[in-house]
Amino acid sequence: MSVGNPSFDVFQLSDEHVEMRKILRDLCDKEIAPYAADVDEKARYTDEALKALNSSGFSAIHIPEEYGGQGGDSVAACIVIEEVARVCASSSLIPICNKLGTMGMLLKGSEELKQKVLPSIGSGEATASYALSEREAGSDAAAMRTRAKADGDDWVLNGSKCWISNGGKSTWYTVMAVTDPDKGANGISAFVVHADDPGFTVGAKERKMGIKGSPTTDLYFEDCRIPGDRIIGEPGTGFKTALATLDHTRPTIGAQAVGIAQGALEASIAYTKERKQFGKSISDFQNTQFMLADMAMKIEAARLMVYTAAARAERGEPNLGFISSAAKCYASDVAMEVTTNAVQLFGGYGYTVDFPVERYMRDAKITQIYEGTNQIQRVVMSRALLR
Ligand SMILES: Cc1cc2nc3c(=O)[nH]c(=O)nc-3n(C[C@H](O)[C@H](O)[C@H](O)COP(=O)(O)OP(=O)(O)OC[C@H]3O[C@@H](n4cnc5c(N)ncnc54)[C@H](O)[C@@H]3O)c2cc1C
User: Fold this and answer.
1) 208 close to ligand 1 (CB < 6 Angstrom)
2) Segments of the chain scoring below 70 in pLDDT
3) Do residues 80 and 95 lie in contact, with contact meaning Cβ atoms separated by under 8 Å?
4) Which residues belong to any copy of the Acyl-CoA dehydrogenase/oxidase N-terminal domain (predicted)?
5) Residue 164 in contact with ligand 1 by CB distance below 6 A
6) Could you tell me the distance, in angstroms and rounded to a whole number, from the CA of residue 366 to the centre of ligand 1?
7) I want to staple 137 with a disulfide (CB 3.0 to 4.6 A). Which of 7, 117, 144, 273 is the partner?
8) Are 258 and 96 in contact (CB under 8 A)?
9) 4 domain-assigned
10) Within this chain, do residues 153 and 91 fall inside the same structural domain, yes or no?
11) Is the CB of 35 under 6 A from ligand 1?
12) Are residues 217 and 250 both part of a single domain?
């Protein structure tokens, strides 16, 4: 056994990952953080972040090099999302949605479809969204009613989707629709719709608690005609593709949660050192110290689980359901707890928009809800345990 072996690299990120994080941190602090409060207050799109991420090649680093992308691995994609969310959760929806909206294609799309769609996203010229949810089909997504029918060489879509992140901003939408209503989940297919396709329209923005800089909208399909080759995989495989997508992307929501929690922790450390009560810094009280220690400890555990889930997805391991749900669920519960405690540590000031922690707390909440609520993650995990 060797002691003090610096080349022992188990549980250590590669030099490239570490270097990338440094570059991102600088970029995010300088070009994204200054706009985070304004984006939130005005509920406006994160234009500055899109520009900064595009010009540095970080808006969709998961796109493979053969499609004009950076070919970043799953852990690298999580680091991008984590670092952006550390300063602005809304902006982190740019890389999140780009991965979510393209993963089905990457997993099951034809070569022609990938060649048609992915280069525009890899170059930053276009962005993508993922459309599974409907008003009456949320957790029970297979109960969807949007229909797609073959018509000559084309597919014609009718129906609507709701809660679509970056709706109206994205160029490409991966849309799940029923092609054979008699077959339940096995009668659902996945398609790629372009924003300019005839019969496709976007609804009004939802007025939300958090991630206000990422528009969330309905999508409408009225005899929306798309070319036949825009189907992902075979008819009837769409629901499986949608779920396989989530196995790969739930760790990215975990990464978003870790980033939000990290931002709240750093703000709390700075504030509690500065703020004086009873003649000393509030960080001198053991209660504060223990709260900070618990926050940091849980963030560290969440981060490790997120990277583990991402690494397992990258290796193409089977049965990712448990670990990707666990990473998303644990990290988002940690983010909610940490951000709530951050507000507590700021006292009354934490309850105002003059400090960022109330935004972190509002933004954290969505990580417990989307890509499947944390109750649904527990359904997925327990199913894997009891199988
Ligand atoms: C801001 C935002 C962005 C989103 N972005 C997207 C997107 O880009 N693409 C997309 O397709 N969707 C998106 N969603 C939808 C999101 O994934 C759903 O809201 C979520 O899956 C829950 O569905 P629901 O809202 O219909 O809640 P419901 O399914 O009605 O759930 C309500 C409550 O019941 C619980 N519940 C339901 N079923 C069970 C069960 N079997 N066991 C235990 N508890 C259960 C839930 O956990 C929840 O607490 C987004 C949602 C929001 C709010």
Assistant:
1) yes
2) 1-2
3) yes
4) 14-125
5) yes
6) 10
7) 144
8) no
9) no
10) no
11) no
12) no
Output the pLDDT for position 308. 98
Which CATH number do you get for residue 171? 2.40.110.10
pTM over 0.70: yes
Q: Which residue has the tokens 């397992």?
A: 312
Structural domain total, the chain: 3
Q: Is 376 in the pocket of ligand 1 (CB under 6 A)?
A: yes
Residue-wise DSSP of 301-353: HHHHHHHHHHHHHHTT-S--HHHHHHHHHHHHHHHHHHHHHHHHHHGGGGGST
**In the prediction, which pLDDT does 2 show?**
64
State in Å: Cα 92 to ligand 1 middle: 20
Segment (H or E) for 176 = strand 172-178
Question: Do 84 and 99 sit in the same domain of this protein?
Answer: yes
**Is 131 in contact with 163 (CB distance < 8 Å)?**
no
Does ligand 1 have an atom closer than 6 angstroms to the CB of 357?
no
If asked whether residues 244 and 222 sit together in one domain, one would say no
State how far the Cα of 157 lies from the Cα of 220, in Å rounded to an integer: 9
Q: Are residues 115 and 143 in the same domain?
A: no
Query: Which helix (DSSP H) or strand (DSSP E) does residue 225 occupy?
Result: strand 216-227
How big, in percent rounded to 5, are the helix, strand and coil portions of the chain?
A: 60, 15, 25
Q: How many helices and strands, by DSSP H and E, does the chain display?
A: 11, 10
Q: Give the Cα separation of 387 and 374 in Å (integer).
A: 20
The answer to whether residues 64 and 147 belong to one domain is no
Pocket test for ligand 1, best of 98, 100, 139 (most atoms within 8 A of CB): 139
Q: Domain span at residue 161?
A: 128-236
CATH value at residue 334: 1.20.140.10
Q: Which CATH number belongs to the domain containing residue 40 in this structure?
A: 1.10.540.10
**Are 76 and 44 contained in the same domain?**
yes
pLDDT tens-digit profile of 206-229?
999 999 999 999 999 999 999 999
pLDDT for residue 3: 83
CA-closest residue to ligand 1 atom 24? 138
